[in-house]
Write a structure and sequence with these properties.
Blueprint: E1 3-8, H1 13-24, E2 31-38, E3 42-49, H2 52-58, E4 69-75, E5 90-91, E6 97-105, H3 108-117, H4 129-138, H5 143-153, E7 156-164, E8 171-176, E9 181-184, E10 189-192, E11 204-207, E12 213-216, E13 221-224, E14 230-231, E15 236-237, H6 253-259, H7 261-269, E16 273-274, E17 277-278, H8 287-292, E18 295-300, H9 302-319, E19 323-327, H10 328-331, E20 342-348, H11 354-365, E21 369-374, H12 380-384, E22 387-390, H13 403-422, H14 428-449, H15 452-462, E23 467-472, H16 475-491, E24 494-499, E25 516-520, H17 527-538, E26 543-549, H18 553-557, E27 562-566, H19 574-592
Parallel strand pairs: 18-19, 18-20, 20-21, 21-22, 23-24, 23-25, 25-26, 26-27
Antiparallel strand pairs: 1-4, 1-10, 2-3, 2-4, 5-6, 6-7, 7-8, 8-12, 9-10, 9-11, 11-15, 12-13, 13-14, 16-17
The protein binds 5-amino-5-deoxy-1-O-phosphono-D-mannitol.
Length: about 600
């Protein structure tokens, strides 16, 4: 996926575009580019492989580009390697039309071959260039008409920003299956993949829908539907500030977002807890439907999938109904046993993950009701699901998710407790008890965060290991999956998470002198078994970094080489606490290895390709 931004107004466009791209760089960062139109210099195009800083240096922070209208792009390569030529914007051969694009044009090869047969020469390996060249091909003086024709010819997903030197008083935007936000300023207007790019300039936005096309001028924005009929867009006000999208004195977004977790979790749960009960007003699901459910599915990718693994353990305990947790990329191709008696819960921070979106559509096609747990307001998944619960974590910029993960956990638990009451599976006393403890979770997370130096010390002991195992049972196993993913994605250390009882069925052969095993032993009912597994791996030479609750710390300390201790809590909420030191461990290890923590190699914040 990539980030796109567009600006049209009275001030110099390039610095504004670069500022927007800086905030979108988490979406992709292998190359970047700008196209700006100026009265003197016409259409100026600058693009460069590498981080945004390379582009910014080339144009002296934007000062070198004259003009008050332009588009910019930061890329995560899909078609064609990262290179200057494959960077966006792509320019049509007439030199008139510049295009930035997020998404994938699926039938680009067929269009490219057709245009080549007509003598059009291509200059990149990208799918996007066909849009620029096809616009040129159709263009006869009316850019909107040409765009309309192109949108009917291309297949796939796109958020497009189009600038034409014949029409410098306007920018064109179009969307299908790729996010695009319009921003309304004073004497200027914006388009962007994400509100973070424009929040510094305006908080008044509207979210484009699939099939819509927008014409931006200095003075206004007119949106049209797929039949080119004018659409009145609802405007909304973004309820967070630019400071939320800045590092605020922290060295990395990831660390800032880890530290924001107490507040984020509080904001996610507090409005839904009233008088000892979960309140999900307006959700729309009713008790009869929930009662009729034969099965629940949780479908997601990456860390959001790991929330689902936790959720399976928790929801099955609470609801006594089967819960299947399935990777979104597998779900859609597995002919799932989903029908009108199923509820499919999709979890996604970004609300744009393509596999999750496809799974959601498949579930709906099969007749299931769908509930989305999403962070980004107005995202595609939030729009398409039957029911939505927002996590309200605020913008998450670091590629490695932390606060979004924690709020997803919290919101899924709220849903579980609420449903359990509707199904008559929870007494009012137990509900009040659970919620009382849930409201204490933010403080307990804050308590863990007051001792970061301890985790930093353990990271200094273990950061040079090349292979690390996580093991645990039940909820500890689910935590291990996420702890391991955090570590590998930002520190590039090979790491695997195992259900502790499974280790002896093969993987234990990899344990040798000095291998680091992170032994998660917070789940009290299985603590003795956890200890046995620690003894097993230690007797094969492993070094053990243990994690347990305060009440079991003394016992665990007898077996582990190092020990992380978390506050005691109800079993249901252990994951909300246990994940925090694992996030910190991954962070400090990556820091000590000199990794680019917020922008790990080969990754992007949301994955809008298959
Ligand atoms: O936006 P989503 O929650 O749908 O993203 C799913 C995964 O791509 C995401 O959780 C990914 O695994 C993160 N980089 C993990 O930190």
């Amino acid at each position: 996926m990539c980030g796109i931004v567009g600006f049209i107004g009275g001030e110099q466009a390039a610095p504004v575009l670069l500022d927007g791209l800086r905030r979108l760089e988490y979406r992709g960062y292998d190359s970047a580019g700008l196209a700006v139109f100026g009265e003197q210099q016409g259409l100026q195009l600058v693009k460069a492989k590498g981080r945004l800083a390379v582009l910014s240096d080339l144009v002296d922070g934007g000062a070198k580009l004259e003009g008050t209208v332009g588009v910019g792009h930061t890329r995560w390569a899909t078609h064609g390697e990262p290179s200057d030529a494959n960077s966006h914007p792509h320019l049509s051969n007439s030199g008139r039309i510049a295009v930035v694009h997020n998404g994938i044009i699926e039938n680009y090869m067929e269009i490219k071959e057709y245009l080549q047969s007509q003598g059009v020469v291509f200059h990149s390996d990208t799918d996007t260039e066909v849009v620029a060249q096809l616009l040129d091909y159709y263009y006869q003086g009316d850019l909107v008409e040409a765009t309309f024709k192109v949108l009917h010819r291309i297949e796939g997903s796109y958020a497009l920003g189009i600038l034409c030197s014949d029409h410098p008083g306007q920018l064109i935007a179009a969307r299908k299956d790729s996010p695009l936000v319009l921003g309304y300023g004073e004497g200027c207007n914006f388009l962007a993949s994400d509100v973070t790019a424009l929040i510094k300039y305006t908080k008044t936005v509207s979210y484009m829908e699939d099939g819509e096309l927008a014409i931006l001028t200095r003075d206004g924005i007119q949106v049209y539907d797929a039949l080119l009929q004018p659409v009145e867009k609802e405007r909304s006000t973004v309820d967070w500030d630019i400071a939320d999208a800045e590092k605020g004195g922290y060295e990395h977004f990831m660390f800032k977002e880890i530290m924001e977790q107490p507040e984020a979790v509080r904001k996610a749960i507090a409005p839904h807890i009233q008088n000892g009960q979960v309140v999900l007003d307006g959700l729309g699901l009713d008790a009869d439907f929930l009662q009729s459910l034969s099965r629940l599915y949780i479908v997601a990718c990456g860390s959001s999938y790991h929330v689902g693994v936790v959720g399976k353990y928790q929801l099955e305990q609470l609801l006594r109904k089967p819960v299947e947790v399935v990777l979104a990329s597998e779900f859609r191709y597995s002919n799932p046993l989903v029908d009108e008696n199923s509820l499919v819960i999709v979890i996604s921070q970004s609300g744009e993950t393509l596999d999750t979106m496809a799974a959601l559509r498949e579930a709906r096609r099969l007749g299931a009701k769908t509930l989305a747990i999403v962070n980004v307001v107005g995202s595609s998944i939030a729009k398409e699901a039957d029911y939505v619960l927002y996590t309200w974590a605020g913008p998450e910029i670091a590629v490695a998710t932390t606060k979004a993960y924690s709020t997803q956990l919290a919101v899924l638990m709220l849903f579980g407790i609420w449903t359990a009451r509707l199904l008559g599976r929870l007494t009012p006393e137990r509900e009040a008890e659970l919620l009382g403890e849930m409201l204490r979770i933010p403080d307990k997370i804050a308590e863990i965060l007051r001792h970061t130096e301890e985790i930093q010390y353990y990271a200094s002991l273990y950061f040079n290991h090349e292979s690390i195992f996580f093991m645990g049972r039940n909820l500890d196993y689910a935590m291990g999956l996420e702890g391991s993913l955090k570590l590998k994605e930002i520190s590039y250390i090979h790491s695997e998470a195992y259900a502790a009882g499974e280790l002896k069925h093969g993987t234990i052969s990899l344990i040798e002198d000095g291998t680091l095993v992170v032994a998660l032993a917070s789940y009290a009912p299985l603590f003795d078994k956890d200890v046995s597994n620690v003894v097993e791996v230690k007797s094969r030479g492993a070094r053990v970094l243990g994690l347990t609750t305060r009440s079991r710390a003394e016992e665990m300390a007898k077996h582990a080489d190092s020990l992380i201790v978390i506050p005691d809590t109800d079993l249901m909420f252990l994951p909300s606490l246990a994940i925090v030191p694992l996030q910190l461990f991954a962070y400090y290890v990556a820091l000590m290895r000199g990794c680019d923590i917020d922008k790990p190699r080969n990754l992007a914040k949301s994955v809008t390709v298959e």
